[in-house]
Amino acid sequence: MRVLVALGGNALLRRGQRPDADLQENNLRASVTSLARLAERHELIITHGNGPQVGVLALESAQDTNLTRPYPLDTIVAETQGMIGYWLLQALQNALPGRQVAALVTQTLVSAVDPAFKNPTKFVGEIYSQEEAEKLAQEYGWTVKQDGRYWRRVVPSPAPRRVVETRLIGRLVRDGVLTVCAGGGGIPVIRNEKGRLQGVEAVIDKDLTGSVLAEALEADVFMMLTDVPRVARHFGTPEQEDITHTTPHQLRAERFPAGSMGPKVEAACRFVETTGDMAAIGMLDEAERILEGRGGTIVTPNATWPLASTL
Ligand SMILES: Nc1ncnc2c1ncn2[C@@H]1O[C@H](COP(=O)(O)OP(=O)(O)O)[C@@H](O)[C@H]1O
Ligand SMILES: NC(=O)OP(=O)(O)O
């Protein structure tokens, strides 16, 4: 089977951890164990988040007095693809000796007139108190918003249309290369009036890009791995109820928070609605169980749809 996995931020940084390189590398080493087992039996494409890391590097650049102006966000997304791609590459190569692994820097096309450019919603970087966040916003021209109990920087997050390097990725996958790509949703680019690719300041949602890429690569399964075992109804309340198997129709009748489970549910629904194949959301270390339909929240076109593992 061909499986596209979108790796959640928790694989790199647990909540509250400082974004030190050695800590993230250690976390990843543990996280790739389950991915390596999947890669032994399936064609695997891996994408990953970059929200915390993109914010850290953007702040670093904003504070660099040698620069005339801070690095733009598209360049910083590229930096995170290199950094996280390198960590994943090495961890996967060590877990799968002899296997060809590639980590690609890739771009994702968005619309230059996407309304998201006027309404930043994507949380990046570290968490702050309201006072700290407002001070930083004034100093660096950021937009900041409340994220639960804390405050964070927000940046525009336009909808992904296509991963520019889709054909190349497909070729690598067909050649048996375990491919890491579209990290952080991909480097956001538009086609300008001359038809040329040009970077834009944004951070794309990695789950939405994962869905677009999984469809384009004709993946059998699109799996989003995070730090909760299942999507839940009435999340965080005494009435919380895990969803094991559902359909886009049922999911679209519920509401999920914009900054976290909302984009995952939307990405799952789009993939299933467009392809008629299976999407899933669940825990990183349960990847194999999820693929067998024994873990996570499985999303299929209807309730009696055969699970991917039985196809
Ligand atoms: N209805 C829900 N069911 C499960 N988790 C939810 C729900 N609503 C919000 N969440 C939160 O979504 C988080 C996963 O989203 P996010 O932090 O964006 O994931 P990642 O960074 O791993 O991609 C979970 O840790 C959980 O706290
Ligand atoms: N780009 C992106 O969606 O990153 P996170 O998943 O880390 O927020």
Attribute tags:
single chain, 311 residues, alpha/beta, Carbamate kinase, eight-stranded mixed beta sheet, four-stranded mixed beta sheet, 9 helices, 17 strands, 23% strand, binds adenosine-5'-diphosphate, binds phosphoric acid mono(formamide)ester, transferase, carbamate kinase activity
List strands and helices in order, with pairings.
Blueprint: E1 2-7, H1 21-41, E2 43-48, H2 51-62, H3 73-95, E3 101-103, E4 107-109, E5 122-128, H4 130-140, E6 143-147, E7 150-155, E8 162-163, H5 166-174, E9 178-180, E10 187-191, E11 197-199, H6 206-216, E12 221-226, E13 232-233, E14 241-242, E15 245-246, H7 248-251, H8 261-275, E16 278-283, H9 287-291, E17 297-299
Parallel strand pairs: 1-2, 1-12, 2-9, 3-9, 4-10, 12-16, 15-17
Antiparallel strand pairs: 4-8, 5-7, 6-7, 10-11, 13-14, 16-17
Helix pairs in contact: 1-3, 2-3, 6-8
